[in-house]
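Supplementary Note 3. Input sequence used for the single-chain structure prediction.
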Amino acid sequence: LKADLGCSMTASSSYSSSPSPPPLPCPIQSFMHANFSDRLVRAILHDGFEAPTAIQSCALPTAMAGFDVIGMAPTGSGKTLAFLWPMLIHVFDQRRVVPGDGPVGQGQGR
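The predicted structure, written as discrete structure tokens, is reproduced below.
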């Protein structure tokens, strides 16, 4: 599938504590395989996206597994969403900020 999608996926060898880098996840063929919440998958499908594009098929599982991703693909191929969806999941998984949590730009000069 990687070759069919044109995915060239390699893990960085900068992991000094292990003899070889961890394996990268396989590309996905459906948003149902992206490890997204049911709510996000429904929203994606509702917006007219039927299946991941080639860049999304490779980038989504890689980003969701915690790897850094560099993607090159033509304009309009879905790169932005391939980076945006995992980012949104990360942001929404954070606990709410409470007073005393530190400098988080809450307008200290009010």
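Residues 96 and 104 are 12 Å apart (CA to CA). The first helix runs from residue 2 to 5.
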